[in-house]
Amino acid sequence: MKKRLIAILAFFCATTFSFAQEQTSETSVKVLPMFGGKQKTETEQKQDEKFLTSCDKNFSTRVEASKFFMERGWEYLNEGQTDTAMYRFNLAWLLNPGNKDTYWAFGLVTSAKGQSEEAISLYEKALELDPKNSLLLSDVAAAYLAVYKENKKKKYLKKAAGYVNTATAADAGNAYALYNTSLVKFYEKKYGEAWDYLHRSRAINMTQIDYGYIMELVAQMPDPQGFFKQMAPDVNTDTAQN
């Protein structure tokens, strides 16, 4: 076990050094989902083979190795190191292209960079492998809502509504799905229903709630339950409506 950990750490040192060197270029393919989807050079292919061979020696299966690099990726993402996280997710994908979590992670990182339309296609790749995952469906819905907020095209709102309906059908206790349903109802100008879903969401988990959204909702309709009543005097109605 000790020998295996040393080998893995040695690999990390080598790949991190190489990664740091490549960041001097405009954009390294290592920080693009699936390495940018481009044909690799002979040198890059040899590097991949070396990496895969090293993992074959240090893990019982490539599925196990993929899971290991996914975990490292989540750690970096939680620390806000999105590029390093993306590189780890790419390694996990290289090891196991059938790992739906890699596509999900690609979507999350891409969304975090404000590229919601690009994120949607990545989320939907994950959904092809896991179509009933309520949390994944919620993330796809959130991406569609972000795109709708930018361009106001109803087809995106309709897509978001479809995904949150499927998400809540799969898990009625998914607070994030309920929150996104509230957003859908808000954009549909159904403010009473928006409040209902918001309260259902916050009763389960308040951490995902955006208080800027609550202020917009209060500007359109006071909270029927009075829970957010104290926020009303601070609302700038003109700003909220815009």
Characterize the structure shown.
TPR repeats lie at residues 100-133. Keywords: Repeat, Signal, TPR repeat. Residues 1-20 form the signal peptide. There is one protein chain. The chain has 242 residues and is mostly helical. The protein folds into two domains: 1-119, no CATH class; 132-242, Alpha Horseshoe (Serine Threonine Protein Phosphatase 5, Tetratricopeptide repeat). The chain has helices at residues 2-22, 42-58, 62-78, 82-95, 100-112, 116-129, 134-151, 154-170, 175-187, 191-204, 211-220, 237-241. It is elongated. The relative contact order is 0.06. Residues 1-7, 16-26 and 233-242 have low confidence and may be disordered.
Describe what is shown at a glance.
Helices cover 71% and strands 0% of the residues. By secondary structure, it is mostly helical. It is elongated and about 60 Å long.
The rounded Rg comes to: 21 Å
Note the gap between the termini.
Answer: 59 Å
- Structural category is mainly alpha
Enumerate how many helices there are, as a single number: 12
- β-strand percent reads under 5%
